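Budget justification note: compute hours in this period were largely spent on complex prediction jobs such as the one shown. Inputs:
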Amino acid sequence: MKNIDSTSHVTGKSIYLDDIPILQGTLYGAVLDSPIGHGEVVAIDYSEALAMDGVAYILTHEDIPGENQIGGIIPDEELFAEKEVHFQGQPIALILAESEHIAFEARKLVKMKFTEKEVITDPREARAKGRLIIPPRTFSLGNTAAAWAQCAHIFEGTAQTNGQEHLYIETQGAYAVPMENGHIRLSSSTQGPTQVQRTAARVLGVGMHRIEVDVVRLGGGFGGKEDQATPWGVMAALGAFVLNQPIKVVLHRLDDMRMTGKRHPYSSDYKIGLSEELKIIAYEATFHQNAGASADLSPAVMERTLFHATNSYFVPNVEVTAYSCKTNLPPNTAFRGFGGPQGMFVIEAALAHAARELGVEKCILQKKNLLKNGDSFPYGQIADGVGLSQIWEDLEAKFDLKAVEARVQEFNAQHEDRKKGFSLMPVTFGISFTKTPMNQARALVHIYSDGSVGVSTGAVEMGQGVNTKMLQIAAQMFSLNPSRVKLESTNTTRVANTSPSAASATSDLNGKALQKACQALQERLKNCAARHWGVTSADISLKEERIWVKGKATDMSWDQLVDMAFLARIALTENGHYATPIIHFDKTIEKGHPFAYHVFGLALTEVTLDCIRGTYEFDSVKIVHDFGKSMNTAVDTGQIEGGLVQGIGWMTMEELSYDQAGKLRSNSLSTYKIPDIYAVPGEILIEAFETEGTEMAILKSKAVGEPPLMYGMGAFFAIESALRAFNPDFESTYDAPFTPEKVLMGLYQSSQP
Amino acid sequence: MIEFILNDRKIATDQPSGALLLDFVRYEKRLTGTKIGCREGDCGACTVLIGSWQNGQMKYEQVTSCLTALGNVHGRHVVTIEGLNMEGMTPVQQAMVDESGTQCGFCTVGFVVSLTAYCLQPTAPSPQHAIAAIDGNICRCTGYKAIGRAAQKITEALAGKDVAQPVDWLVERNFIPTYFQLIPDRLKAIRPRKQKQPTGIVLGGGTDLYVQKHDELAHRELEVMADRPEWRYVRMEGGFCRLGGGTTVSDIATSDIFQKHFPRLGDHLKLVSSSPIRNISTLAGNFVNASPIGDLTAFFLALDAKITLTEEKQNRSIFLKDFYKGYKELDKKAGEIITEISFHIPSPNSHFNFEKVSKRTHLDIASVNTAALITLREGIIQQAHISAGGIGPIPTYLHKSCAFLQGKPLSPKTIQSANDVLQAEISPISDVRGTKEYKRLMLRQLFYAHFIGLFPGEISLKGLLEEE
Ligand SMILES: Cc1cc2nc3c(=O)[nH]c(=O)nc-3n(C[C@H](O)[C@H](O)[C@H](O)COP(=O)(O)OP(=O)(O)OC[C@H]3O[C@@H](n4cnc5c(N)ncnc54)[C@H](O)[C@@H]3O)c2cc1C
Ligand code: FES
Ligand code: FES
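Corresponding output:
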């Protein structure tokens, strides 16, 4: 089934936040933000702005009836800065005016005075100064200290990955409408409606029941609207509460880029030890996560870095430690992969470093050390359903790895100005929220008396196709034509206390809840039919909108059965609840079984470097991916292609840049580049790895949102290999992204003009 | 009064000429299919079609409505997605659905509109043209492969397109609604706008103006170059090529004269902005914007072009290389308008090349760019015009390097020595587009690239590196 929104998307009829019809009296908000990286507020003069024609009000911390606090994991973030600002772009006030234009013009008239304080942008410096969001955490297995003695080869180094701007094409936004009795109806472009609701209630000082959050769809999220959609939603709600007028806040692109956090930059140290036979004996790493000015989701992101520190390899002795470092940048946040990619990059760098020094191909080291069933992850979970060795062999066979190697060598021998390189990038990614209580979901299903069906879940549609999968489940369970099922907006009054749509787990959690609801309704209807036909409910089946008894079609249609059930006063509404079984994790010992299952895969990336200009093109990326039993290949293929290209962007052209004062230099689409159609690999081939799937996944169809992003890391190592074909003396500092600038400097490392 | 046709409706509005088309369609007319992603021309979410009656034919082009002033659509046909929708889906829409070319959907309308512009081009369909048509559309979800497959399908559906009368052909096959056929007559009924008093701000395509001064312009009257169609031409006169001050980048891309004299023109211009930007942006706007990394400025500096500046019928003509006095400081009076650009058509012994490197190869501003026109006779460099951008405060004509090369034999040694001169002549600074060390190295490489590319028999990278 194609994405159910495709038709309205291609005709421009899909409704996003900025398309919601505007009610009379709506005021528009422009967020006033800190122009400095760190300092104390001395005075803010709003008088000129307030005097401007059309300005209605300026909302500040003084208007907050509840708590001026929006921190989710740790209460360390104000909605509007009060006494101190901690990053450039930190919200201070919301200027409300009759038009967007007036609000933005008025913003220019506000005069602010600060006493500036020291700005820290480097996570290592923050750690050295003791500025940590939470105490460091360490995962360990075996005993690295004792293991070094057994290693024939030991390599140490550093690795960096820069941050990444989400660049959802729809910017952040919210629209709040006051209802009677101080209730607020809030439309928000958020991945986490409950989080917006909870935080708005806290700031307004009211119960959550007074705030209704509704989400139709997002124009992209990628993690950037998991926690960071909240401030704008809360500001709009606060404005509506205070002024009793509808309030719309939609960020301009430059404001969005300046004010919101991104993927966390990491600066890490590694030490890896191998045996004579090139088996990894020991691995140590220290991760410095650049968290930005407040916690946001950083502690959880940091945890996933530790979970994925050994990627797809078995290492008997591991000690990895992570520091969440507090700097004066916007609070960094969730982004597809959620810290996992940052952890994996470091061990991939360590292996590349080892391979270079040992004079072997990196893929030999990788293949020798692949994780197998029964191996323990450093966090205690025993690997199960691992397909890595077989995936590796599949890839070698299906894409003829030998021929690729030969082709690359031949090309390089024949060409002076251009060089090719390739890399292999295995991925092992754990599925579940690592915070166990978040692994629950609910779905509300109404069968209307005419036989049509309405489905509400906690899942937010943002392009990942979750609504399509939900519709498939409901239509399949009731054996209905999909046109009889409607996926409702995600709304906190229909489905409460939801987890955000994140961690790749949305379809699993919500889908399983939906299955349960449908099952219960199906049972009731079957019982009703069984009574009618005088058989047991086991004799009844539903096929193509018809009732079958003992394997034979009857003349009773689905609609008739529903009508009959309604008249018999049978409940045609059901709320399904699902909580992932088995999983647990004990933070006091850093051991447990946090993941329902893992997703595995392998990518082969080929690149061609232009050694005159330092530019590159990816010839192809060929992937063997473990889908389980994909329930929707169109949607899942789209996730792989999109995730891969996003990962390649992160590793190549996407260069986030702040200056010493914490000012974002890559502050627009003209200075922060994401892949365009010419930048993507010439060919992306995806082969499904044939497995039975796992019962823990919805319809055995494994989660697919995040894992493909990490295939993109192969881009970095393919470039490194091509670069060394031109300049064998090149030694990578493993500092991603590998921009054309770094490539050119690397090509001519010893021969600059 | 600005008049145009929006989809199938006649519009007459007293909004100022500086008001933006995007805001007009979305907020005045509530045609919300057109999206806002950046307001800077860099994402394509706001793409619409502009049709104009040119040389007896309707010509449709995709443009970014976020940078298009209402003044620039007077007398034209503006088409948003709502103006393309019909009872069923168009083959473009259908292909995007069938190939899963849409995920979150926010970019999708822009792609559909650009691909429709591709269908409307008066040229034979090809996969390369299809992809080129969406070079200004950014998608963060799909990774483009599915969109590429859709483009392929559309190309197949265009087999046998009537290149002379695309509108009729496309209407017949439900690519576009029938009302398109009546547009020419309706447009002809719209009178040209009266010349306004000078307002102090000249508007070319607006692709620099609106990025820089969006807030100021939206409520103002501007002097719209498009109101002077007589200033838009490309023609030969003697050995000279003359271009009107309103000439757009796409105009030269499609000009026979340019195609004939610059065989690699397509490759060069592909590196400059994107189709929707090239469709509206003017050469003169690029020159006057005076960005040190202006690509067309570098291009025309190497052609040793002249510009004609006009104020109240007073003309004067200067070399482009003398136009730049300092950072964004020009030899130009406030009221002067560039009305003509001219250059000597290169002789058969002259070889032209343009090079540009940026973080992203397409739709990106150069880290460094350079153009070269080298006249070679019997192994001797008779004359060299070389420009470079990104290595100083102004678009630079490399006077000293050019002088050095003159009369020297074409050899690796000459080029290396010229690079020494060149390195002394530039003063790059570190910024978001690269460190100064990178820019120096890059310019050396691109300088070498001119010779490697133009004289592959004589000059190679290895030769240039070895003899150092
Ligand atoms: C997304 C995007 C990508 C871009 N990519 C590139 C790129 O790759 N390379 C590049 O070089 N540029 C690029 N640009 C910049 C811009 O497109 C070019 O500089 C373009 O040529 C400007 O022309 P315009 O007609 O749009 O200028 P306008 O914005 O209309 O005008 C620019 C300036 O010139 C003045 N002006 C215009 N016409 C005249 C005239 N005839 N006489 C006197 N003054 C005049 C205006 O008053 C204004 O000061 C890009 C811009 C955008 C938005
Ligand atoms: S809104 Fe991005 S190009 Fe116009
Ligand atoms: S489908 Fe989401 S940006 Fe293209």
